[in-house]
């Protein structure tokens, strides 16, 4: 559905060139929810804005729904853009227009007749859960409702792709979840491909199928969300995964454990699906002369399933602890020995 080939974006500034996106290749399949995560300045906004040519790449090709956008004339591009809706962090609504008229705006531009426009607007109001609010003005709506208007407007011309530029970053956690649920609903009902950028791992965890991690203009890691959560390779990815698997209390508890048992090992075990059901800890205690203390355990639900993390402290003779760790590894459970104190 979407393919980016060797795209680069260089901005010329008075302090010299800035390589905002520096050679990115990505393929996004039809119907997928694809998340791009990275810290501020990583190049996420520039990247997503190149998917509808709000920003033109300095080099490389962008193909969306079979059209090479970089090769289109202005007129052709305007038509191609109708296939690509976009929503924004600060909603970008027209404040002097009602909800209904905001949603109708792209239909007016596309030359859709009034009756058909009204019918479509009613459908969209229903789809995004704004029934009864059609005649309100944006200033009378909550943040979540404003984003619902943004979503309805973005879907007005039946796009194949929806781009979400930090669409939930201005919202509180509960409203964020309700907007994420709406995006999943739309993805499933309409088969829409969704590309989103975010700095919050929660967003990736909750709705994405695939994730790409960006750092300094490059994609440093990419794959199905479950794989990346289970086995993050890059330091940057590990930091993001920790946001979810390892809350601050865990870090504090581990520090305390290591201080109490300086000779011990703290290990983090990560299991997926049925692995989580095998009686691993019982086997460990029965087979090895080690003491096992559970520091913390957590099941994290992600869009494609769930996985569990368990932090345990292993105390005993060094060789025995090492044998116990080798045993866990043989059970296809990810094991990470934590040594920070
Ligand atoms: N129009 C511009 N002119 C000059 N530099 C720019 C421009 N737009 C972005 N940049 C620079 O490109 C780099 C990437 O910016 P970008 O906004 O794409 O990152 P981001 O990951 O989306 O971060 P944020 O969430 O803070 O927007 C930054 O160093 C930024 O200062």
From TrEMBL:
SUPFAM superfamilies: ACT-like (SSF55021), P-loop containing nucleoside triphosphate hydrolases (SSF52540). The keyword ATP-binding applies. Keywords: Amino-acid transport, ATP-binding, Cell membrane, Membrane, Nucleotide-binding, Translocase, Transport. Residues 2-241 form the ABC transporter domain. It comes from the Bacteria. GO terms for molecular function: ATP binding. It holds the Pfam family ABC_tran. This is Methionine ABC transporter ATP-binding protein. It comes from Alkalihalophilus lindianensis.
């Amino acid at each position: 559905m979407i393919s980016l080939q060797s795209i680069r974006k260089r901005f010329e500034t008075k302090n010299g060139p800035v390589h905002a996106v520096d050679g990115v290749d990505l393929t996004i399949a039809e119907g997928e929810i694809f998340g791009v995560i990275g810290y501020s300045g990583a190049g996420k906004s520039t990247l997503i804005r190149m998917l509808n040519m709000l920003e033109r790449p300095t080099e490389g090709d962008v193909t969306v729904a079979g059209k090479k956008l970089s090769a289109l004339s202005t007129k052709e591009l305007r038509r191609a853009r109708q296939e690509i809706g976009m929503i924004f962090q600060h909603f970008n609504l027209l404040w002097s227009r009602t909800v209904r008229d905001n949603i109708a705006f792209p239909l007016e531009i596309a030359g859709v007749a009034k009756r058909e426009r009204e019918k479509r607007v009613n459908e969209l109001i229903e789809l995004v859960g704004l029934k009864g609010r059609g005649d309100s003005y944006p200033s009378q709506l909550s943040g979540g409702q404003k984003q619902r208007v943004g979503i309805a407007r973005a879907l007005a011309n039946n796009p194949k792709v929806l781009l979400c530029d930090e669409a939930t970053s201005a919202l509180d956690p509960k409203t964020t979840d309700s907007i994420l649920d709406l995006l999943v609903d739309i993805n499933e009902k309409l088969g829409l491909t969704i590309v989103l950028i975010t700095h919050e791992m929660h967003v990736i965890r909750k709705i994405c199928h695939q994730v790409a991690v960006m750092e300094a203009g490059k994609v440093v890691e990419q794959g199905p969300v479950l794989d990346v959560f289970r086995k993050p390779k890059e330091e940057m990815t590990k930091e993001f995964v920790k946001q979810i698997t390892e809350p601050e209390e865990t870090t504090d508890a581990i520090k305390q454990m290591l201080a109490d048992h300086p000779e011990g090992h703290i290990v983090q075990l990560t299991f997926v699906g049925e692995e989580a059901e095998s009686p691993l800890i019982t086997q460990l205690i029965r087979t090895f002369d080690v003491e096992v203390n559970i520091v913390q355990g957590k099941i994290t639900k992600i869009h494609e399933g769930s996985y569990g993390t368990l932090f345990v402290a292993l105390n005993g003779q060094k060789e025995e602890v090492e044998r116990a760790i080798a045993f866990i590894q043989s059970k296809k459970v990810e094991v990470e020995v934590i040594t920070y104190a």
